[in-house]
Q: What sequence folds into this?
């Protein structure tokens, strides 16, 4: 007589799996950075514009600049703008400048309005404003009218 073979040992289907890792506030950022290294991250930077893989704007950036963000940059440049008065010492008043800002934060246009358009002080302020750098944002380019006192 042949001995009956023993039945196979049962296999546990519910193998112990590690508990899910706790996610802290920084882990998403780390995951994003690591994902960007292998090309699977949610955001990458191309040509200075923060864009998502599909070409959409970076969801982490604000849609537009806030008033405090704009004023912070403009205030830092106020001393450089004030030196423009030397070009036209008799100029007084307020120079209104239309400033166009692209989503990278670069100033792509600065135009002094009348009565300072085309004057030495107006041109100096335009050139100074074109050197400003604002924070990046995800929306369409912005045009703001900023007054500068002489």
A:
């Amino acid at each position: 007589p042949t001995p009956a073979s023993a039945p196979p040992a049962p296999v546990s289907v519910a193998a112990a799996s590690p508990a899910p890792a706790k996610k802290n506030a920084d882990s998403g950022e780390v995951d994003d950075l690591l994902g960007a290294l292998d090309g699977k991250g949610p955001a990458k930077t191309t040509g200075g514009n923060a864009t998502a893989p599909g070409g959409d704007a970076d969801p982490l950036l604000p849609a537009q600049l806030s008033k405090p963000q704009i004023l912070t940059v403009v205030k830092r440049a106020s001393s450089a703008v004030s030196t423009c008065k030397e070009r036209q010492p008799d100029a007084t008043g307020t120079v209104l400048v239309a400033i166009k800002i692209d989503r990278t934060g670069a100033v792509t246009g600065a135009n002094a309005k009348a009565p300072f358009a085309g004057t030495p002080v107006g041109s100096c302020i335009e050139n100074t404003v074109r050197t400003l750098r604002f924070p990046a944002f995800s929306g369409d380019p912005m045009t703001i009218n900023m007054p500068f006192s002489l």
User: Anything to note?
Assistant: Residues 9-30, 32-55 have pLDDT under 50 and may be disordered. Helices lie at 27-37, 67-76, 78-82, 120-130.
